[in-house]
Amino acid sequence: MHDAVRATVGLFHVSKSYAAGHFALRDVCLEFQRGEFALLSGPSGAGKTTLLKLIFAAERASEGQILVLGRNASRLGAAAIPSLRRRIGVVFQDFKLMPRRTVEENVALALEVVGTPRREVRARVFAILKQLGLQDRRFHHPLSLSGGEQQRVAIARALVNEPEILLADEPTGNLDEELSLEIMDLIAAAAKRGTTVIVATHDSAILERYGGRHVRLEHGRVVSEHSTPAGREGE
Amino acid sequence: MRQLWARLISLTRSALRGLSSSPVASGVAVVTIAISLVLVGAFALLASNMRSLLDDFGDALVVAAYLGENVPASEYPALADLARSVEGVESVQVISPEQALERFRVGVGRGAALLEGLSENPLPASLEITLLPEHQSAAGLGVVVESLEGLPGIDDLGSGQQWVEGYLRALALVRGLGIGLGAILGFAALLIVSNTIRLAMLSRRDELELLALVGASRSFVGAPLLLEGALCGAAGSALALALLFLLFQLVVPGFEFGLELLLGGLSPHFFAPSECLALMAAGVAVGVVGSLFALASERFA
Ligand SMILES: Nc1ncnc2c1ncn2[C@@H]1O[C@H](COP(=O)(O)OP(=O)(O)OP(=O)(O)O)[C@@H](O)[C@H]1O
Ligand SMILES: [Mg+2]
Question: Which ipTM value was assigned to this complex?
Answer without folding.
Answer: 0.85
